[in-house]
């Protein structure tokens, strides 16, 4: 299909929305920045979007992994990009709601430097115990009681220090009246190796990291507001009485500040259409990710709410990534 026919087709699809096509006709190439390496959930989502949004959004749409500083480098690259729809960011919400509280200085304003286009997905986390915890400890209340009786073993690991899973584990201990010590690992694989090998009592991490080891560990709880579709028999922290700790991780799309509203709307429509693809849902499910599309306004509100919640916890702990 040549460019003239492509634009005619796009115009037909957008005619009822009131979006001005001539504001978009100049775009041939666009780039999606991802702040995490190839093969991660963020990268997987970015590549699925790039594949499904071509050519409706841009003739060429590529993913560039700009990794480092907990996703900040990708944010800064997007912030510095042209505000004409050619520079996009796919990012977990934590980059905006948690990271600014864990670093002494960040070079972006999480509320104003980028425009939230909309959320695409969500994924839950899980708490699991390994063989170093007695077999009869098979639910969350029993685990917390065991920690109180065995304070020297009351520790949990995660593959991501300074993140929601780190802070959620510590906060769970505070709410339960027991000090749960966090053991930071460089990645989830290393933490799971120690969990399965009885060198680590407990672990908090993403649902897909625990499922492959379900026969060797006990998954006691998940963190979502509802039970995970991937672990329907495992209760949530909310069900155990810890409603404060109902949380997940959203991933969404963002544009630089100053991008025209019609471009934001066009990107949202293209994104939402891509996320409706059964093939996208199937691919993401392998990584334990569920499709959950939300508007830019909803995503902006979620950033502010999460920032207030996690910021309070981080401040109470006195935690800094660069301290």
Automatic annotation (TrEMBL):
The keyword Lyase does not apply. Keywords: Plasmid, Signal. The keyword Signal applies. Residues 1-25 form the signal peptide. It holds the Pfam family TctC. InterPro entries: BUG (IPR005064), Bug_dom1 (IPR042100). Belongs to the UPF0065 (bug) family. This is Tripartite tricarboxylate transporter substrate-binding protein. It comes from Comamonas endophytica.
């Amino acid at each position: 299909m040549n460019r003239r026919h492509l634009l005619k087709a796009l115009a037909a699809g957008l005619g009822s929305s009131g979006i001005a096509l001539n504001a978009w006709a100049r775009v041939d190439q666009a780039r999606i920045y991802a702040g995490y390496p190839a093969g991660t959930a963020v990268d997987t989502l970015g590549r699925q979007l790039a594949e499904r949004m071509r050519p409706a959004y841009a003739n060429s749409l590529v993913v560039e992994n700009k990794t480092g500083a907990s996703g900040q480098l990708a944010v800064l690259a997007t912030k510095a990009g042209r505000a004409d729809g050619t520079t996009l960011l796919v990012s977990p919400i934590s980059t905006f709601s948690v990271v600014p509280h864990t670093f002494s200085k960040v070079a972006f304003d999480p509320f104003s430097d980028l425009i939230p286009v909309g959320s695409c997905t969500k994924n839950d986390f899980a708490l699991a115990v390994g063989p170093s915890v007695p077999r009869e400890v098979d639910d969350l209340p029993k685990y917390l009681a065991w920690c109180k009786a065995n304070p020297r073993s009351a520790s949990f690991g995660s593959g991501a220090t300074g993140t929601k899973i780190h802070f959620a584990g510590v906060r769970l201990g505070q709410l339960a009246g027991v000090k749960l010590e966090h053991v930071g690992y460089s990645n989830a694989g290393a933490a799971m190796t120690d969990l399965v090998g009885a060198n680590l009592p407990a672990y908090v991490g993403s649902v897909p990291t625990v499922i492959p080891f379900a026969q060797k560990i006990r998954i006691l709880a998940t963190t979502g507001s509802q039970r995970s579709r991937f672990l329907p028999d495992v209760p949530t922290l909310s069900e155990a009485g810890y409603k404060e700790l109902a949380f997940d991780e959203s991933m969404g799309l963002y544009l630089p500040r100053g991008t025209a509203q019609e471009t934001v709307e066009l990107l949202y429509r293209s994104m939402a259409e891509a996320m409706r693809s059964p093939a996208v849902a199937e691919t993401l499910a392998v990584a334990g990710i569920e499709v959950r599309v939300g508007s830019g306004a909803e995503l902006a509100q979620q950033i502010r709410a999460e920032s207030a919640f996690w910021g309070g916890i981080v401040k109470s702990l006195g935690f800094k990534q660069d301290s």
